[in-house]
């Protein structure tokens, strides 16, 4: 099973984007989305350091609702 994390793009420099979510920032490779228009402020699904899909903000929220519920269930949520 693969897990992709929704993140928001804060800045872009070529194929490298600085993305953040829940207070964590990471450098993310945009190479797999090179045929798409990717902009600062967009939300992307990140897997193994690569943005694999552009999603809307509502979908990003739904992902985090599921992740947060799962983390709550096992007592691992850091921001609870």
Polypeptide structure, described:
The protein has a single domain (5-74), classed as SH3 type barrels. The chain is 22% helix and 40% strand. It is built from one helix and five strands. The protein has a five-stranded antiparallel β-sheet with strand order 3-2-1-4-5, with helices on one face. A hairpin with a 2-residue loop joins β4 (43-47) and β5. The N and C termini lie far apart (26 Å). The mean pLDDT is 93.
Name the strands of the widest sheet in spatial order.
3-2-1-4-5
Query: Which range best describes the helical content: under 10%, 10-25%, 25-40%, 40-55%, 55-70% or over 70%?
Result: 10-25%
Mean model confidence by pLDDT: 93
CATH architecture: Roll
- Category by helix and strand content: alpha+beta
Descriptive labels:
80 residues, alpha+beta, SH3 type barrels, five-stranded antiparallel beta sheet, 1 helix, 5 strands, 40% strand, elongated
SSE arrangement:
Blueprint (H helix, E strand, L loop, with lengths): L4 E9 L2 E6 L2 E6 L13 E5 L2 E6 L1 H18 L6
Antiparallel strand pairs: 1-2, 1-4, 2-3, 4-5
Give a brief description:
This protein has one helix at 57-74, and strands spanning 5-13, 16-21, 24-29, 43-47, 50-55. By secondary structure, the chain is α+β, with helices and mostly antiparallel strands.
């Amino acid at each position: 099973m693969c897990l992709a994390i929704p993140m928001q793009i804060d800045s872009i420099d070529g194929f490298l984007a600085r993305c953040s979510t829940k207070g964590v920032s990471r450098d993310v490779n945009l190479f797999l989305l090179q045929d798409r228009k990717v902009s600062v402020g967009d939300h992307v699904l990140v897997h193994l350091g690569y943005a694999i899909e552009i999603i809307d903000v509502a979908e990003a929220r739904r992902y985090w609702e599921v992740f947060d519920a799962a983390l709550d269930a096992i007592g691992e949520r850091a921001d609870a």
